[in-house]
Amino acid sequence: MTNAITLATELLDCLQEQLTAPATDYPIAAEHVMLRAGAEVTPLLGTNDDECCRGLGWVRIADLSGVRQVGDLQNVSCFGAERLLTLEMGVARCAPSADIVGVPTEDQWTLAATQLDSDMGSMEAAICCAFGDIEGSAAEEISVGRYEPFGVDGNCLGGTMTVVIAMSRCCPTEE
């Protein structure tokens, strides 16, 4: 396993803990909080299942890039393994809805806003859980990125939060 997936899994474990914890008012079952792959997460809808309305949480590798530029000769023996890893956490939920002749009520929208706020708090707590003490970890520095709400898109709304991690793993020494 790479350092990237190891760090993503550490964050996922903490996000699962936070979203299923008794302290959250709006729990999501652990089996619905998962690693996802791809350029973005699009919650899925099937004839018997709706990822948004059951609740969906995820961690995905959003970006992995080098640190050094061509021509930077500092620490040449190891620069090939230095990376900036961006992880994305997200939570999707069912958007408020009404019958065919109405619109969602103020109470429904207030509940949705409260759920998103709780999810944002769970994501922040997951970062502290996973990376509060990075000693001995593949992570060298942590920077919390933006929280961005999304939706309503289809029947979904939610939010994502990014974490940027500076990591390095020196090139193996030849024996």
Describe this structure in words.
By secondary structure, this protein is an alpha+beta fold. The protein has one domain: Alpha-Beta Plaits. Helix content is 27%, strand content 30%. It has 3 helices and 5 strands; from the N terminus they run H-E-H-E-E-H-E-E. A 5-stranded mixed beta sheet has the order 1-2-3-5-4. Helix 2 links the parallel strand 1 and strand 2. The radius of gyration is 19 Å and the shape is elongated. The model has no long low-confidence stretch (mean pLDDT 87).
CATH domain class name:
Alpha Beta
Number of domains: 1
Number of helices: 3
CATH architecture term: 2-Layer Sandwich
By helix and strand content, what is the structural category?
alpha+beta
CATH topology name, in short, is Alpha-Beta Plaits
**Taking Cα atoms only, what radius of gyration do you get, to the nearest Å?**
19 Å
- Uncertain spans, ≥5 residues at pLDDT below 50? none
Helix content: 25-40%
Strand residues, percent: 25-35%
Mean pLDDT: 87
- The spatial strand order of the largest sheet comes to 1-2-3-5-4
CATH superfamily: Phage minor tail protein U
Question: Sheet bearing the most strands, described?
Answer: 5 strands, mixed
* Broad shape: elongated
Question: For the terminal residues, how far apart are their CA atoms?
Answer: 23 Å
Number of strands: 5
Order of helices and strands: HEHEEHEE
Write the SSE topology.
Elements: H1 3-20, E1 33-35, H2 51-54, E2 56-66, E3 83-94, H3 106-131, E4 139-153, E5 156-167
Parallel strand pairs: 1-2
Antiparallel strand pairs: 2-3, 3-5, 4-5
